[in-house]
Amino acid sequence: MAERTLHGTGATPRSGVGSVVWYGRDISLLDPDGVEVDPETEIERFADAVDTARTELESEREATAERVGEDEAAVFDAHIQFLEDPTIEDAVETMVGNGLPAPNAVDAAFGEHIEQFEGMDGRMAERADDLRDVRDRLLRLLTDGERVDLGDLPEGSVVLAERLTPSDTAQLDPERVAGFATVTGGRTSHAAIFARSLALPAVVGIGETLESVEGGTEVVVDGDDGTLLVGPDDDEREAAASGSGAAIVDESVETTDGKHIEVAANIGQPAELDPAAQRGADGVGLYRTEFLFLDRETPPSEDEQYEAVREVLDTFPDGRVVVRTLDIGGDKRIPYLDLPAEENPFLGERGIRRSLDPDSDLFATQLRALLRAAADGAGDLAIMFPLVATVEELDGALDALDAAAADLEGRETEVADPEVGVMIETPSAVFMAEELAARVDFLSIGTNDLTQYVMAADRENERVGDLHDPTHPGVLRAIRQTVKSAHDEDAWVGMCGEMAGDPDLTELLVGLGLDELSMSAVTIPEVKTAVSETEHSAASERADRARLAATRSEVHDTLEL
């Protein structure tokens, strides 16, 4: 038995065994007292560091998009924005003019902004970590500090850290790293999402007790149970080293009493298609199209988009492919579009709100491409609109779809009649689900945003981490209301948030009435296994008890979590 067990939040249903390597960013700054500073030289050093940092970020963004996905890579866009923030630049230059060396000025200027963001609520609080990442990058360049190459660690390393930023996690090589564990973080943090995309064992949010584990210690990272075993015994070591994960099931699955559940993949870029198919995905429950619009000076043509979607349909010729129309705004930015600077962009102009107004031409082009692909592709294409909050927005989107079809018919181009759906991400959409479902074929619940908006708790703000939990009764009731409203209108209901990929919650979701679950490819085998072991009638009874509970702890007791 292990010497001791540390508990956190499991990020990936995988386990690994290896030796601890601590990762930190300790950077020593000179005492500025008595140091003579040439402001012109220091400002030039700062400008050179900014240029180098920008090049690094752009390179890491490209590599992350290729290895992990466009959604995950988009966080580097925010880092570049902070790097080029004129407010921070002015503060650094002012401090240098007052006699501070460039590294000290950078540390002080960023420190002020980090403190400001830490004092905010919601999504904006996560920006503190992004600022730390940019600050530490600049300090490393200004002090000639060595950067630990997380992509070239000894084989069998288990990385321990207070926190891992997106640029840290994106470097980890699953062929060499046996897993990681952090002091801070939650299941929906950037590090946890990256871990699932890389199929890397990970436990986050262990707390300060993690700091007592010394470098070189042998540990087991159990991303399923959410534990770190310090000094494992032979049996624990062998169990972790033998690998984890359920057997891959290529066929569709149903519960023990015959309820069919579609288990699909969330896809953010073409490189994820084959791995999803290889892990037994029935189809694609969320195909994010943002990657087509990024890292370029002009938007993609209709033909480019058509070809990209055809590739997905050809990969899943017997399955359904749900394509989400362009979802930008918030933390997703595209250089050639005039995106406004908003105080709270996650409550601003994003998703369908942009498609119906400032980006209506892009929307029309994308809809024509999708309708053409639906007519020509091997699989069944479905179109899904993001962040719909009102019936008027849905009606506007449906009118745009009809107009796109009319344009194609005018060209004498064959047009299909694909399924159409709406993402349920806001409380308003939950309350209006019956009216929305009456107009479409399906609803798909995005639990990351829905939980955030229902609970008024940002998923990256650790101070409200307990609130950003989709098993809160309020969120479960929102899910059940959505399902019932949709079924009353003969529409099917899927889920494409992180909750869908948690095998511990599969029975609950089946019991709440979901027809489809879509997730990162890494957890598809586990979820398929969980579905096949679930009795639908018993799951429904347990889900009702959980939904009617008054507290999250009562829900967890009911679900035996």
Q: How does this structure look, described?
A:
This protein is an alpha/beta fold. Helix content is 43%, strand content 14%. An 8-stranded mixed β-sheet has the order 1-8-7-3-4-5-6-2. Strands 10-11-12-13-14-15-16-17 form an 8-stranded parallel β-barrel, surrounded by 4 helices. Strand 10, helix 10 and strand 11 form a beta-alpha-beta unit. Helix 1 packs across helix 6 and helix 21 runs antiparallel to helix 22.
Radius of gyration: 24 Å
Q: Write out the strand line-up for the largest beta sheet, numbering strands in chain order.
A: 1-8-7-3-4-5-6-2
What level of helicity do the residues show? 40-55%
Distance between the termini: 23 Å
Query: What summary fits the major beta sheet?
Result: 8 strands, mixed
**Secondary structure category:** alpha/beta
Based on CA inertia axes, which overall geometry fits?
A: globular
Strand content: 5-15%
- Total count of strands: 17
Low-confidence stretches: none
Please describe the structure with a list of short key phrases separated by commas or semicolons.
alpha/beta; eight-stranded mixed beta sheet; eight-stranded parallel β-barrel
Q: What would a concise description of this structure say?
A:
The chain has 561 residues and is an alpha/beta fold.
Please describe the topology of this protein.
Elements: E1 4-7, E2 9-10, E3 15-22, H1 39-67, H2 70-73, H3 75-83, H4 86-97, H5 102-118, H6 127-142, E4 157-161, H7 166-169, E5 177-182, H8 190-197, E6 202-204, E7 218-222, E8 227-230, H9 234-241, E9 253-254, E10 260-267, H10 273-278, E11 284-288, H11 302-315, E12 320-324, H12 352-355, H13 360-376, E13 380-385, H14 391-410, E14 419-424, H15 427-431, H16 433-437, E15 442-445, H17 447-455, H18 473-488, E16 492-495, H19 506-512, E17 516-519, H20 524-532, H21 536-547, H22 552-559
Parallel strand pairs: 3-4, 4-5, 5-6, 10-11, 10-17, 11-12, 12-13, 13-14, 14-15, 15-16, 16-17
Antiparallel strand pairs: 1-8, 2-6, 3-7, 7-8, 9-10
